[in-house]
Q: What sequence folds into this?
């Protein structure tokens, strides 16, 4: 991870009619990092991602991705990014391999089959390559969706609430995938409502509230904003999630057929 910003936002504003969604957002995301943007519904997370991915125009301020201005250099920005939305954008009739080959062909890349096979191996989907995606579990579909997003090796990946609706095992599969991507140098901007997700994954965390960034820092820095904790000795009880995962186990990339 370097300190060179992969994403730079200054004074970003956006309104829908009389509803001001973004009220002057400032943000800097270092290259090769996992950056979590937290906020409740309506805070402006998806609007921010849509502006950064050139799907929406801002009313004011500036934003750049991979050194390219989103307003004046949209083509260059699109070549630098990939976007994975809240729901897996996969074709359930096609097989996993066919989905990947199709995207590689649409991007006019050489040897789509080789590209597809490499990504299937990278994301632990080789054994399911010839199966229709409609038989995949939620975690497998999301991993395939992220694999499709990486065709063409974009340096910046936007993940807009990537684990919405997933069970704990599938969510952990996606978390492992995100960690691997960042370890290989991909910059990941992650929007989420799940505080635990940001806590487990993010190098830095920003909190977006009512259209403004109200806190920004590492997890340790954000914790320092709170008063010192009172030390109490209590017996730690396992959470329901810990109980669930202990009972069913957490196999790595186990291919399941349950939806």
A:
């Amino acid at each position: 991870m370097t300190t060179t910003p992969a994403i730079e936002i200054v004074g970003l504003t956006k309104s829908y009619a009389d509803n001001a969604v973004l009220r002057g957002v400032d943000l800097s995301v270092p290259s090769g990092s996992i950056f979590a943007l937290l906020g409740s519904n309506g805070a402006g997370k998806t609007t921010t991602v849509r502006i950064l991915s050139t799907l929406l125009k801002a009313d004011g301020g500036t934003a750049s991705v991979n050194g390219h201005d989103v307003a004046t250099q949209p083509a260059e920005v699109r070549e630098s990014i990939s976007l994975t939305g809240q729901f897996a954008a996969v074709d359930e009739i096609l097989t996993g391999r066919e989905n990947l080959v199709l995207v590689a062909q649409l991007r006019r890349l050489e040897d789509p089959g080789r590209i597809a096979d490499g990504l299937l191996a990278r994301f632990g989907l080789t054994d399911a390559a010839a199966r229709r995606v409609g038989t995949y579990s939620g975690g497998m579909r999301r991993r395939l969706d992220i694999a499709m997003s990486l065709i063409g090796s974009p340096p910046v990946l936007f993940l807009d609430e990537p684990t919405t609706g997933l069970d704990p095992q599938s969510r952990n599969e996606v978390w492992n995938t995100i960690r691997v991507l960042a370890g290989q140098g991909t910059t990941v901007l992650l929007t989420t409502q799940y505080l635990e997700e940001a806590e487990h994954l993010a190098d830095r965390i920003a909190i977006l509230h009512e259209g403004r960034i109200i806190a920004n820092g590492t997890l340790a820095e954000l914790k320092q904003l709170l008063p010192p904790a009172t030390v109490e000795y209590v017996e730690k009880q396992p959470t329901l999630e810990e109980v669930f995962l202990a009972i069913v186990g957490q196999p790595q990339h186990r291919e399941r057929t349950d939806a």
Remarks:
- The first helix runs from residue 45 to 52.
